[in-house]
Amino acid sequence: MTDSRYSSINPSTAIALGVFHTGAIAALFFFSWQAFWTAVFLNWLALSLGIGMGYHRLLTHRSYKVPSWIEYFLTICATLALEGGPIFWVGTHRVHHQHSDKEGDPHSPRHGAWWAHLMWMVFGKGYHNETKLMGKYAPDLYRDKFHRSINSWHWVPLTVLGFILMGIGAWTGGAYGAASMVLWGIFLRVTLGHHFTWAVNSITHMHGARRFDTRDDSTNNWYVALLTFGEGWHNNHHAHPTSARHGLAWYELDITWLEIWALGKLGIAQNIKVARTDQPIAGTSEKAAA
Question: Rounded CA gap, 182 and 178, in Å?
Answer without folding.
Answer: 6
